[in-house]
Design brief:
This protein has about 150 residues and is an alpha+beta fold. The protein contains five helices and six strands; from the N terminus they run ααβββαββααβ. The longest helix has 17 residues. It comes from Amycolatopsis mediterranei (strain S699) (Nocardia mediterranei).
Length: about 150
């Protein structure tokens, strides 16, 4: 169950998030998987730099946090990736960038801090054979990675 569901003091949690973002530049918010829905995670704080937040679905919390923290640091040193771009992560999977259709629906706490106009990019990761979720063979047909926007392959 998520913090928001377990704790009715949402304003207190938002203040803790603001403090964490102020101290570190951004945070990663994890969301546990439930039933058929896999876990996912997203950054909070990149919007404060005028950048899109980053999202990853279908990875365990530690892997998702590592991927998002590494790419967030790169984005702050350079520029955000673009929809359709493929990035080979060092010691990680190949990812393709997808722009979220409705970021504020999925990134509840980022939207609460920065407003419903936030932008976000999903890092859609390939499976061990290099296949993406839009392939029927992805993870040998076992799916597990919702894609939150349309694919814009270059």
């Amino acid at each position: 169950m998520c913090f928001e569901c377990e704790n009715r003091d949402r304003s207190g949690y938002l203040e803790r998030l603001r403090g964490g973002v102020a101290a570190r530049g951004w945070l990663v918010q994890g969301v546990e998987g439930a039933g058929p829905y896999p876990p996912w995670a997203y950054t909070i704080g990149l919007s404060g730099y005028g950048l899109p937040e980053l999202v990853v679905t279908g990875l365990p919390a530690l892997a998702a946090g590592g991927l998002l923290n590494n790419l967030a640091a790169q984005v702050l040193r350079g520029s955000p990736p673009t929809a359709g771009e493929r990035i080979q992560l060092p010691d990680g999977p190949l990812v393709e960038v997808v722009e979220l259709t409705e970021p504020s629906v999925h990134l509840v706490f980022a939207a609460a801090l920065y407003g419903p106009e936030i932008r976000a990019l999903q890092l859609v990761h390939a499976d061990a054979q290099g296949r993406f979720p839009w392939s029927p063979d992805y993870r040998d047909g076992r799916a597990g990675q919702p894609v939150l926007g349309p694919r814009h392959a270059h």
